[in-house]
Amino acid sequence: xxxxxxxxxxxxxxxxxxxxxxxxxxxxxxxxxxxxxxxxxxxxxxxxxxxxxxxxxxxxxxxxxxxxxxxxxxxxxxxxxxxxxxxxxxxxxxxxxxxxxxxxxxxxxxxxxxxxxxxxxxxxxxxxxxxxxxxxxxxxxxxxxxxxxxxxxxxxxxxxxxxxxxxxxxxxxxxxxxxxxxxxxxxxxxxxxxxxxxxxxxxxxxxxxxxxxxxxxxxxxxxxxxxxxxxxxxxxxxxxxxxxxxxxxxxxxxxxxxxxxxxxxxxxxxxxxxxxxxxxxxxxxxxxxxxxxxxxxxxxxxxxxxxxxxxxxxxxxxxxxxxxxxxxxxxxxxxxxxxxxxxxxxxxxxxxxxxxxxxxxxxxxxxxxxxxxxxxxxxxxxxxxxxxxxxxxxxxxxxxxxxxxxxxxxxxxxxxxxxxx
Length: 421
Ligand SMILES: [Zn+2]
Hints:
By secondary structure, the protein is of the alpha/beta class. It is about 30% helix and about 25% strand. It starts with a helix and ends with a strand. The structure holds zinc ion. Zinc ion binds next to loops.
């Protein structure tokens, strides 16, 4: 099948797929998992010995394990050294068109020291494109769309979406903002896709751009930032696509609620409290580099009330951040006290009307607050911190305040922990 036809077929398949209720979804998932396990046990050396066993018997996977078993795990005979070399060369030259036997090789952008390599076949790429389009296009796939896509790397994954009616322009975030804005105003995009820090940058020019839809990717979209972006672009909803190299995990519905994409992934939930969980995902559609019981490093917050859209896919309150970004304090009675990123975020926002900030826990456990606020705000922050330390019974760490600035070549992380575990 040609690549455009593939995209269209996938788009139609998912656009029109509706599940009557949760039971219908679960029985569909069961079938898909069965097919996927049959495939991997006959094509991946790593999974060969699991033939006939239920999913729950399969080992948990993570980036480290996946890289360590790269050659045995993938089903397309790609070798890790070769793939890594190609990915690094592309990144260096910023030319992402080269492939290994119809397989696109990419590097995951994670902030952790071990970077992952991901493999996507041409067919998977088309499916990915069709799937994303089924989730984000507000009209028909045959309408005309101008899409502006801001990315740190232009994996040729994204170019597969371009066709005669969907015109896709890639913006390299390493280019100067002025150049990008000029290009953007010329393009007049209907859809703008970018990470929240980029969308915040674009707010000043929102009136010149006026897209119909704004989509946030790659970083946590903070409530406060969402409000700013909504206001600037004159919209009620900022759509989010929670996409990682391991798959397209969640998208926003028309009510602005993020739902897990349970029509392509099965998600096991490793609960941290009554609503926070770490997702362990099994993707039904990826076969080149199977994603089976892959434990992500993210904390998701489940939404308890059903979403008015009526979808039976798990609804999320928000994507809270990385598991690594949990703050760890010394307890008053020995031991350690862990505090989720969201509580640290609120700590800052309770101090007053703060727009730009970052709060970082250092390797030693001290707190660094980056913002441009006065002494009264610092006092308020300290009062809030004392209250929290009292409640949670931890020793107040050393705190230092610094001016705020943001290095655009990095991911914007407002809440970050570097504490050694
Ligand atoms: Zn919904």
